[in-house]
Structure formats: structure tokens, C-alpha cells
Amino acid sequence: MAGIPELSIVLVHFRTGELTGDCLRSLLDHLTVHAEIIVVDNDPAEGSGARLAEQFPETRWIEAPDNPGFGASCNRGMRAARGEVIWLLNTDTVQVQHAADEIVAFFRTHPGVDLLCHRLLNADRSLQHNLFDDAQPSVRVVLRQQWLQSPFGRLTRSRPQASLSLQGRQVMACSGASVALRKKVFEATGGFDPDFFLYCEETEWMRRRIAGNYVLWYEPSIAVIHLSGGSGGAWSQWQNRLSYFLYLYKFSVSLYRLYLALERVNRLAWFAARCLCMQFGKAREYKKLSQRLVRQAARDIPSYPPGFGARGNQPLRFSAEG
């Protein structure tokens, strides 16, 4: 279809041929609005992107053999977008309704909204927690996070109250698995910080450059299934923690150092709890193991050096500082 599209849908593909194929198939089956689909392939040498490009000729593919990371690749896709509205969508999502049409209609009827997020559903159609309205990082927030990660805090920890996200309202931040925005917002803010290889890039962007300057609205009438973690590898949990360390470091070096210190204390607490349980069994057999774990707990926490920049071709990895 000729002319400028009403919507530009941007996806980042990285070795997830089956997921990306299902995502594209679902999109095209539910798409009636004039839209373009842009896919940034972060590993074209792997080959699944080329096969998908042949299978779905309606899509535009951008090769990124340097694999700059998820956020930087989203930026490349948004720069190539021709539509006035951009929809950033993970490849591990499945459409259950005409979300693209509804997004375009929402922006058309709500000129005061700059960014839009919506309900995310788990595979069983239950509500997925995707709103992050807690306060900006502070001493209180850091203490609470570390308490919940401690052996004692786990006993009082509860799951996020996803049921609270059933009402449309303005929010501070949301999951980046599915978020739409006016292209002018990208042009004004520059998009995601490329220092974040994966995870936390949307948190940093929304809390530091969107909140207070633009309106981010949550609309529960729109829904998409998100197979959370489907597009991440086995290292995704560790990568998530590294990115959060970086987010704190960029927000406040003092808060980062506090979090780092409490993280070490938490590691020691967990290993101490494990050793306490071991003493009721074969204590001597586990003595050397527990000593090694305690030493590791004191040093195996990553620290970000000043001037830290984006890493290409692989997830961020750091040598521990003792």
C-alpha cells in the first residue's frame, strides 16, 4: 500500500526464528490499519532473519551485525520509521485483538497523550504485571528491595498486584515489551540509552526523560499476550541484574554504592543460612564449599567503572571487583 503509514511497528530479532515468525504472523492476521513492520536483525549471520524476510515480504528488515543491544536496535528501527506513531513490540508477543488498529485510533482521539502502554497477558490470559509506578530510586526503595531479596524478606514477599492495573490512568513507567509513542517523542529524546545492552533501558528512558515532560498513558482496553522471557537467553536473569546496577549507577552513584554494599551483605546472609542448614547434615563435607561461597559473595558483585559505554556483539559482562 502506497503512502505514509499511520503506524510503524518496530521489532528486534535475535536468534528467535520461531517466536518472531509467530509474532509476525499474528500481527499480519490482525492488521487492518495502514502500517509498516520494521524488524532489526541483530544476528543476520544466524540465518533465521533471512528466512523470515522471504516468508513475510510485507516486512522491512534492517541488519545489525554488530549487535548493539536491544535499546540501540530499537533506536535504529525508530529512525527508519515513516509513521507518525511508532509501536515498539517484543518478538515474544501474540495478538489477541486488533491492537494496532486500537493504538492508532487512541492516538487519533487523545492528542494530549504522547506514549501509550496497555494490558499485557500471560499465556493463560491472566494479567501480567507491567506498570512500574514506584518512586524514583531512593534510600527507602533500595532498602526495601534488598530486604525483599534477603532470607527473611523472602518470607514476607508477595507477588505484584497486577489486578491494580485494570484502570486507565497516567503512569510513570511501564514494561517495554509493548509500548507505542508519537515519533516526535523519539526525535526529541533520542530514544533509549545505548549503554543498556538489554533490560532497564525503558525504565531509564521513561523515568529520566519521559516522566514530567510527556504523558505516558495506560489503556486497559488494549491487550497483547506477552510470553515473558521468551526472547531472552539463559543469561537473561543475570543480565537483568547487571542492567539494574547500571541504572542505579547512572541515577545516583551514592545509591549504587549503597545497593552494592547491601547486595554483598545479602549474599553473605544467604550463604550463612545455607551453612546453618548444612550443620544438621554432613557439616565437614560442606565446610570447604561454604568457605568458598562466602569468599565469592564478598567479591563476585559487578562494579561499573566511570565512563562505562555500550558493549557490542554479546551481553554485558564485567570482571568482579573485590
Which stretches are low in confidence, meaning pLDDT under 50 for 5 or more residues running? 297-322
Structural class: alpha/beta
Outline the biggest β-sheet: 10 strands, mixed
CATH architecture of the domain at 7-136 and 160-226: Alpha-Beta Complex
CATH topology of the domain at 7-136 and 160-226: Spore Coat Polysaccharide Biosynthesis Protein SpsA, Chain A
Strand content: 15-25%
Q: Which oligomerization state do the chains in this entry correspond to?
A: single chain
Q: Give me the CATH superfamily of the domain at 7-136 and 160-226.
A: Spore Coat Polysaccharide Biosynthesis Protein SpsA, Chain A
Figure out the total of helices.
11
- Rg on CA atoms, Å: 21 Å
The CATH class of the domain at 7-136 and 160-226 is identified as Alpha Beta
Helical coverage, percent range:
40-55%
Overall pLDDT: 82
| Total strands | 10
Provide the succession of SSEs. Answer: EHEHEHEEHEEHHEEHHEHHH
Termini gap: 59 Å
Categorize the overall geometry: globular
